[in-house]
Design goal:
By secondary structure, this protein is mostly helical. Helix content is 80%, strand content 4%.
Amino acid sequence: MNTNASLSGKIRSMSETPSPTDHGRVDADGTVYVVTSAGERRVGQVPDVGPDEAMAFFVRRYESLETEVNLLKQRVASGSVSPEEARKQVGALRTSILEANAVGDLDALAASLDEVTPVLETKAAERREARARQHEETKAAKEQMVAEAEALAAGNDWRGGVNRFRALLEQWKTLPRIDRATDDELWHRFSSARTTYTRRRKAQFAQQAEQREAARRTKEKIIVEAERLSTSTEWGPTARAFRDLMAQWKAAGPAPRDVDDELWKRFRGLQDVFFDARNAVFREQDAEFAQNLAAKQELLDEAERTILPVTDVERARGQLRDFLERFNAYGKVPREAIRTVDNRVRALEQAVKQAADKEWKRTDPQARERAAGTVAMLGSQIEKLTAQAESAQARGEERKAEQLRESITTYQGWLDQAQKTLDEFSA
């Protein structure tokens, strides 16, 4: 049923009722009376006016009450007034109508307020349903907010978490309350999560502050040591010491933000003092070492031409000694050339050593005797195996003869290698 249409129809029907003057009269002295179901009662007197005007005055009061009734019905139909407030207004308006100093059908006007009752019941039911839906929606929203707050409280988002908790709190304030027990329980969980997060965050920041302060003290000690090292001329050990200090610096972690950059500038400046001084010395050395390198390369070129290949061991040994004496007379070479130069020197030394070893092996009487003995032993063994193979073949033992011939082949390979070794002594 359309409540608005029903009320509108009833409002129109009221306008078709008999004239309000049918429910009143005026005495000759100008006193006005109204007639209700309870009887006739005096409503007032308008001095110095005629009867019609006196009656019209009190009719206008009735019409004003009628207007209030119609407005109330419209407000109830539109839902612009709560059922509870509407009931209060109906009761107050009913009393005003029944006691009003006005002329009109007061009984009918008061009775017309009863038409509001079923509409109020419908509106009240709609409001209860709306409140129930809102209750569930608000409860779900708050439960979701509580779950998010508890997740934040258990996490470590110390930056974004603060802003999120602030946003959640503002959102919570905009939501209506639900039933007290549930609302209090959810708020307690939300508030506890926020408190837990705040405490953990403060503890974390306090720990970080303590760590940063410890890092500051460590870095200041490193700077003191760096100041001592910055003027050292022990380039190698001091460079290693600075590398160790750098490792300590990184391990110390960040100091408080307002001093960390300044501490780094001081430390870096002390490193620059040392390494700039070392590099200046190395540049001077490199100029000298470049001259040494040129001289040593020239000597190497000459030695490689005259010593290699080694054909006379004794002569090569003498040339190598002379080369090394002249070579070592020059100082250091640039670091990037050390390996190349050393490799060429070692190649010369290795060539002479290998030639000497070969010569010694060739002329060693004991080695020659051992080689000859090996050749004789292997030849004798081959003759013995050959005789056994021929005998087995004669007896028809083909399998044994084949095995003996395989052994002869193996021994013959050994004999060839031993003979080659013996021949070297005659070269």
